[in-house]
Write a structure and sequence with these properties.
Blueprint: H1 10-30, H2 34-49, H3 53-60, H4 62-70, E1 100-101, E2 112-121, E3 131-135, E4 156-160, E5 166-172, E6 177-178, H5 184-192, E7 197-198, E8 201-207, E9 214-220, E10 239-240, E11 243-244, E12 249-257
Parallel strand pairs: 1-5, 2-12, 9-10
Antiparallel strand pairs: 2-5, 3-4, 3-8, 6-7, 8-9, 11-12
The protein binds benzoic acid and fe (iii) ion.
Length: about 260
């Protein structure tokens, strides 16, 4: 096999040196002993071997990266990408006079939801004909392509906003769900006496030329897990109301993207 040539990466050096500088004070304050260090290494080894490193990082670290980057910045607050995004979702075809229908089985179980959004930039200019990617869990709380019997791209799709920056999608109401608890991430939750639940949410990603890609989530008022989301992904601006209609629910939110 050919040896891979890996070049010096000054950013890696910079970040690692900062990490060591800050971890020294942390270690003094935490008074970590060598047995605890060994326990940590063994647990992290199990985490990696079980393939749970992305899950653990997305539950316990991603929110801090986003808060450090975006708190107090104008525009819609980003939220977690999470471990359940996959590339290659189908285009949701539009039919004149009908709402877009997020990819789903003919008999998809769940309460029908019409979700409306409008997308503009932080100066208030509507962002027409830009790409919106959407994904969510189903009525069993599962994401397609992950421990689910649904087709790979079920409840996943992309489409464009209309010329005024608006969109409306017919889907189902997502459910609150438990992150997996049968591995080292679950073991960690036990140590922390923390429940494994996330509030129900829609995942959305917006891409527009000249703007920062916005990856975020939409949550629903009244969800019992909003205040204690295990992954701390909830932001007040991302809350909407599920309105009761005769045979379906409706919800909406306005999104604001940051120019680059
Ligand atoms: C999610 O949004 O589905 C998610 C985010 C972080 C960790 C686990 C799940
Ligand atoms: Fe999710």
């Amino acid at each position: 096999m050919q040896k891979q040539i890996i070049q010096r990466n000054e950013r890696v050096e910079e970040v690692f040196h900062l990490f060591i500088k800050h971890i020294q004070n942390f270690l003094k304050e935490a008074k970590l002993n060598h047995e605890e260090y060994t326990n940590f290494v063994n647990w992290a080894d199990r985490l990696g071997k079980k393939g749970e490193l992305p899950l653990y990082a997305d539950v316990f670290l991603e929110t801090h990266v986003l808060r450090a980057m975006y708190t107090d910045k104008p525009g819609t607050q980003p939220s977690l990408l999470g471990p359940y995004f996959i590339e290659g979702s189908p285009l949701v075809e539009s039919r004149p006079g009908e709402p877009l229908v997020l990819t789903q089985r003919p008999d998809e179980a769940g309460e029908v939801l019409y979700f409306k959004g409008s997308v503009s930039n932080t100066d208030g200019m509507p962002l027409g004909n830009i790409r919106v990617e959407m994904w969510q869990n189903d009525n069993t709380g599962k994401y397609s392509a992950f421990d689910s019997d649904a087709p790979r791209y079920n409840l996943r799709g992309h489409f464009d906003t209309d010329e005024n920056g608006n969109f409306e999608v017919k889907t189902i109401v997502p459910l609150p769900y438990s992150i997996p608890t049968d591995g080292p991430t679950g073991e960690f939750l036990e140590y922390m006496d923390q429940h494994p639940m996330r509030p129900a949410h829609l995942h959305l990603m917006f891409e527009a030329e000249g703007h920062e890609t916005l990856i975020t989530q939409v949550f629903f008022e009244g969800d019992e897990w909003l205040e204690t989301d295990v992954a701390d992904g909830v932001r007040t601006e991302l809350l909407t109301t599920l309105e009761d209609k005769d045979d379906h629910k409706e919800a909406s939110l306005n999104f604001f993207m940051r120019p680059k």
